[in-house]
Model the fold of this input.
Amino acid sequence: MLAAVPCQFARADVVFLVDNSQTICGSDTSCSNWQSILTFINDIIRQLNVGQNNTRIGFVRYSDSFTPIHEFYLNDEYDRTLLMNAVSGIRYVPGSTVGDHSSFHFLSFGRL
Done:
């Protein structure tokens, strides 16, 4: 028999996979779109029960390169406030535009 678990007690691994290509902001490194993305991610993190034995958070950004940029891994930080500060501090560094989504190949290799 399955029992419902309230969200605040659920355990999960959540990895934010974020487009870092010029599609988001062009070459504008002070891009408001990028800030909106980071705010959205922090709004989600704020609602989660973050912890080593609860919800773990990772952040990966990508462009057309086959090498994703891991800002932090699932086991890097378990404090919600520190995670949110880390997300807020991620700078937009424009990469080439993703055309055929070939950069998603790293998902099949478990590199998150």
Q: What stands out?
A: The mean pLDDT is 80.
